[in-house]
Design brief:
The chain has two domains: 160 residues, NAD(P)-binding Rossmann-like Domain (Rossmann fold); 94 residues, ProC C-terminal domain-like fold (Orthogonal Bundle), CATH 1.10.3730.10. 49% of the residues lie in helices and 16% in strands. It contains eleven helices and nine strands.
């Protein structure tokens, strides 16, 4: 199957790199479409795939179409390529855009799958949630798994969870970066250089996440392994709890989830 990727921003470009590195497709089997790219048979910026600025032409020449565009422009793109995608597989990673929304805008014989990746796919450490839509076959789902496995982990979910997943893992990296920045600021305040503080913080975050994934222990149990009676960690935890860090993070996910639901109503 030939794949057309519409939208060559950071996420679309990361998908190009990940797909090629996974050997699922060769560069000759991928067409990249974006209004800001040049028509080139071999575009070095995008791993030497062919790039064009005509979405309709790209969709016509492909068997599967990956929509890596913003939700604010998704309807324009869907209207534009509607005729060209008849009978084909359309994969959308636009935040908040449901399979039902895609169904309304595309021909009846189009097969749709909704995916919510996150930005760590840029370093092949993302996680992508997959929800099958209208007409999607098991082979379609397997293909999507293979595509997104090239840039991280993949989980299959019920679509009713997709807005919450967008709020948690889709928006989550932004929340984590704020935490890393703030902890590093604390390191700088106490005398550590900025460069070293960021390195210490990021690796601490990475190692802690790995502990959760590999030990499969509850985060609360792992947290309790760190502080000793009257020690440094419990003093810091006291401050976090006084300032309500749990409630703040919960509210952040809740608000991001609500916004994901709102995006599906954009016309």
């Amino acid at each position: 199957m030939k794949l057309c990727i519409i939208g060559l921003g950071k996420i679309g470009t990361a998908m190009v790199h990940g797909i090629l590195n996974s050997k699922l497709y060769s560069k000759e089997e991928i067409i990249g479409c974006d209004i800001n790219v040049k028509n080139l048979k071999d575009n070095k910026k995008y791993e030497n795939i062919e790039t064009i600025n005509d979405n309709v032409d790209g969709a016509k020449r492909a068997d599967a179409i990956l929509l890596a565009v913003k939700p604010q422009v998704i309807d324009h793109v869907l209207e534009e390529v509607s005729e060209a995608v008849k009978g084909k597989l359309v994969i959308s990673i636009a935040a908040g855009i449901s399979n039902s929304h895609l169904k309304e805008k595309l021909p009846l014989d189009v097969r749709t799958i909704r995916v919510m990746p996150n930005t760590p796919i840029l370093v092949k450490a993302g996680i992508s949630a997959v929800a099958a839509g209208r007409n999607a076959t098991q082979d379609d789902i397997k293909l999507v798994y293979k595509i997104f496995s090239g840039v991280g982990q993949v989980v299959k979910v019920d679509e009713k969870l997709m807005d919450a997943i967008t709020g948690l893992s889709g928006s989550g990296p932004a929340f984590i970066y704020i935490m890393i920045e703030a902890l590093a600021d604390g390191g700088v305040l106490t005398g550590i250089s900025r460069e070293l503080a960021i390195k210490l913080t990021a690796q601490t975050m990475l190692g802690s996440a790995k502990m959760v994934l590999e030990t499969k222990n509850h985060p609360g149990l792992l947290k309790d392994m760190v502080p000793s009676p009257g020690g440094t960690s419990i003093r810091g935890i006291e401050v976090l709890e006084k300032h309500g860090i749990r409630g703040i993070l919960i509210d952040a996910v809740k608000e991001a989830t609500l916004r994901s639901k709102e995006l599906n109503t954009i016309k």
